[in-house]
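We store amino acids, tokens; thus:
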Amino acid sequence: MAAETKHEYRYLDGEAERRALIEDIKQVRRDVLQVADLVPPDKQYQPRYHRWSLAAMLGHLQLMDNLLMWLIDLGLVGVRVPVPLLMLNSFNDQMAQVYQRRVVATTIRGIQHKEGVIEAYILRLPVDKFSKLVYDPAQEVTLTVEQAVQEFFLYHWRHHLDTMRKVDDMHYEPPTGGTLV
């Protein structure tokens, strides 16, 4: 049985539900790339997000799409890989160094290509395999395949989008209360 998680997940039994998820995934990816566009080229390789450069953040997202899809594929055939959080964090730190100066435009092209791959993947997932289990090392919980697809391709991206927005996204918020002089 899957452990309690911090997100609400939708049922993906029908094509309409899957298409709605795909649209949410596309939107979060557009939002990430929109924030990335705010970073001047001369700052794309400087530490910005918990010591990660923009290049490292985008490289991480692209790499994790691939690795997490493999994790789901393993779950579909009944194999759960309980990657310890310490190992995941160490891996992410090492990869952040590898991707620290990766060409941003190349990574963006890879992210854009992968979007279509993820869409096709979600549309072809067999409903009778949704209850198979996948271990999520970031949350240290076991998810169903149906939950893992949402966690890995939507919520993981939203988490990093929030991190990026705290540094690079400017929002005007009107003052609350008080009088204007």
User: Anything to note?
Assistant: The mean pLDDT is 92.
